[in-house]
Amino acid sequence: MGLFSKKPQTPIDKVLETIHTSLTVKNQIRDGKAFVPLWKVTIAPSFQQTDSDQMAVIDFHITCPDWDERMYECCASGGKDFDTALGLAMGSFTFCFLPTFTAMMNGDNAEPFESEFVGKTHRWKLYTSDVVGFGDNIGVRNYFDLISDGVRKRLGNQSIAYVKVFASKGVNANGEPSLTGEVRINDVVVPELGKLVEEYAAKWDVARGSFSSAKQFFFLKQESETLLPYPFRGEKREPTLLVCVKKTLDLILELDTSKNLSVIKGQLEQFTGDKTTAEELFSFLPEICAERLLTQQMDFDEQILFSKGSESFAVYKSQLADYHTFGDMMFYLFSTGVYGERTNELAQKLVGYSASYGSLCKAIEGGFKSDSEKLYSKVMFNMPEDFEIR
């Protein structure tokens, strides 16, 4: 080997090189990530462990300090060997996700789109990817035609939102079909819309022993004229909210369970400097914990209700600025072991404070059998008049 021979490329090097050459704007590869200075965007790829050397599963985390949300995409593929699988998985990212993402960042080829949230109109620029398909007879359609009404209902005051659609149909040697229809908005699965996609895939004419699939992305960027003020927008959003979630969990862990959660309201208001955020923290975290830990016993509605004085409002959780963010941060803290041996104790206290768990306990007392059926939960939060739904 010569003195100046190149170091062998690792799989992550190959992924980064593909991103670097596929981007149509100047970008840098540093610290295992691709960075685009013009957009202030970072693309961080990583591999998931698999049991097969003929499968590649790549996670992409895309962040920008100007966004309210980080983006996440997972591309997976099989092949005759790992290099083939890697190439196919990267193809899904570079031919479907990346060109439309680039169009959004450059403001190219947008369509107008409108939504409404708590009586306010929000105008968006919609960017639509090509459909990347595998197999035969998947049809030709823009999936947004199928799901646009459902997406519209689930948008709030975010600066950006992204939608992923995946459809597949396989038919085994006996002629038995297997179907997948999945729609994710900001990486949250929306079963109602996934069902529409699945029903469409069921009509594909797929031969026995064959498999077909289709993937499409949609990016929505809100017009600055309709983007309403929000106290945690910008690069300090995640670190600031993470500290707020941690403070809330600390207070709940030490709280006597005989006391109502509202006793920590004053401390949270002082700590966050924002009344609405304080209300959200001690109201949302217990319910989110129950949602994630009681999936065997309960089904949870996509919507929640807010009662303010004589008025009530039904909103989708995906419309709220912080609902899913709080949940991700809470379970991230659990996963780090920051609470040590008290992690389970904290999770149990949170679930115990949730209205959903209270409903489950009452139902069990009334004869509900949680081991053989599921309870349905749709929660109402009673909020003060000055609470802002955002």
What features would you describe in this structure?
The chain is α+β, with helices and mostly antiparallel strands and 390 residues long. The protein has three domains: 1-107, Double Stranded RNA Binding Domain (2-Layer Sandwich), CATH 3.30.160; 110-228, no CATH class; 237-383, no CATH class. Helices cover 35% and strands 28% of the residues. It is built from ten helices and 17 strands. It has helices at 11-22, 82-106, 144-153, 191-201, 237-253, 265-272, 275-293, 323-336, 343-353, 355-365, and strands at residues 28-30, 33-36, 41-47, 55-63, 71-78, 111-117, 120-128, 132-134, 160-171, 177-185, 188-189, 210-222, 298-300, 303-308, 311-316, 375-377, 380-383. The strands form four sheets. Strands 6, 7, 8, 9, 10, 11 and 12 form a seven-stranded antiparallel sheet that branches. Strand 14 and strand 15 form a beta hairpin. Helix 1 runs parallel beside helix 2 and helix 5 packs across helix 8 (323-336). The chain is globular, with a radius of gyration of 23 Å. The termini are far apart.
What overall form do the CA principal axes indicate? globular
Largest sheet: 7 strands, antiparallel
What's the oligomerization state?
Answer: single chain
Question: How many domains make up the coordinates?
Answer: 3
Integer-rounded radius of gyration: 23 Å
Low-confidence stretches: none
**What is the straight-line distance between the termini?**
61 Å
Structural class determined from secondary elements: alpha+beta
Supply the number of helical segments: 10
Average pLDDT rating: 93
Number of strands: 17
The topology string of helices and strands comes to HEEEEEHEEEHEEEHEHHHEEEHHHEE
Strand residue percentage: 25-35%
Q: How much helix, percentage-wise, in residues? A: 25-40%
